[in-house]
């Protein structure tokens, strides 16, 4: 499966609390095999699954068994520890979407794990040039629409679709930094041009941004939030405050996966035939970022 990692980058580790963005597909599942991610752990973060085509089956150690389809969001809060698996469904022919992570602030990093499924109601706003812009706010708030899903910092996550030739002046929260991830079409962001798979960073202080579609419709994700205000250590599937916290999470996972779960990561569902081992930690201490 083709995957493009747009966050983190060497120049940009975080956008608000958004710390990870994998943009994948569109992939012909008959050729690539689709998504097949066995049981694996997470700590110190929230995962966000958002699809453009296809569907994914989710299982976790809370006992959740859920599907996600285009226009729907699965949000899993890892907190102190959870494990889950994700597989594209047999009915999926083309898989296309994003996997996003939110770093939990230190005060909430050991919160209880949780799972939420949300289907935002799309709405439209008029654009200059051609037609209306379609918007779905799946996290946070934008243009007066608010998602009911719980987050631990102020932020926004939304999908916007601009018809060909449309121009939209989008108001922004001035105390947020933002990232605009282009999925399809050629997008102009003020004076910048962005192609599919690219992310444009809009720093703090911007009151608005001018978005323009070229000769074809544009679909993009708006990700933003107030600066996290602290550094994090990210390694494999763990987020922690320092090297030692991440090393403990790895050690706990390695022990619990040998006995199909435990106190930290929960009991494995019977449907899981196995789980992913954690990689070996590098010989040097992990460095914080952000």
Automatic annotation (TrEMBL):
Residues 159-257 form the Pirin C-terminal domain. Keywords: Iron, Metal-binding. Residues 3-102 form the Pirin N-terminal domain. InterPro entries: Pirin, Pirin_C_dom, Pirin_N_dom, RmlC-like_jellyroll, RmlC_Cupin_sf. Its cofactor is Fe cation. GO terms for molecular function: metal ion binding. Binds 1 Fe cation per subunit. SUPFAM superfamilies: RmlC-like cupins (SSF51182). Fe cation binds at residues 40, 42, 84, 86. Pfam families: Pirin (PF02678), Pirin_C (PF05726). The keyword Iron-sulfur does not apply. Belongs to the pirin family. This is Pirin family protein. It comes from Auraticoccus cholistanensis.
């Amino acid at each position: 499966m083709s995957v493009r990692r747009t966050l983190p980058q060497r120049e940009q580790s975080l956008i608000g609390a958004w710390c990870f963005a994998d943009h994948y597909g569109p992939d012909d599942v008959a050729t690539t095999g689709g998504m097949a991610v066995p049981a694996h752990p997470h700590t110190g973060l929230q995962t966000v699954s958002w699809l453009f085509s296809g569907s994914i089956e989710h299982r976790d150690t809370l006992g959740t068994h859920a599907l996600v389809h285009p226009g729907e969001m699965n949000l899993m809060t890892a907190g102190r520890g959870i494990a889950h698996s994700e597989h594209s469904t047999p009915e999926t022919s083309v898989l296309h979407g994003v996997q996003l992570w939110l770093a939990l602030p230190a005060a909430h990093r050991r919160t209880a794990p949780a799972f939420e499924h949300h289907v935002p109601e799309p709405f439209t706003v008029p654009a200059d040039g051609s037609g209306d812009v379609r918007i779905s706010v799946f996290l946070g708030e934008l243009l007066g629409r608010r998602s009911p899903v719980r987050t631990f910092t102020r932020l926004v996550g939304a999908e916007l679709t601009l018809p060909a030739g449309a121009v939209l002046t989008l108001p922004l929260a001035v105390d947020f930094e933002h990232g605009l991830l282009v999925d399809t079409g050629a997008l102009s962001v003020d004076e910048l041009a962005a192609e599919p798979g690219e992310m444009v960073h809009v720093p703090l202080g911007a009151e608005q941004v001018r978005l323009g579609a070229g000769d074809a419709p544009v679909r993009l994700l708006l990700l933003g939030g107030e600066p996290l205000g602290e550094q994090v250590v990210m390694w494999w599937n763990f987020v922690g405050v320092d090297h030692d916290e991440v090393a403990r999470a790895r050690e706990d996972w390695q022990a619990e996966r040998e006995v199909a779960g435990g106190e930290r990561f929960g009991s494995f569902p019977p449907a899981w035939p196995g789980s992913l081992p954690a990689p070996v930690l590098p010989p040097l201490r992990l460095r914080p970022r952000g």
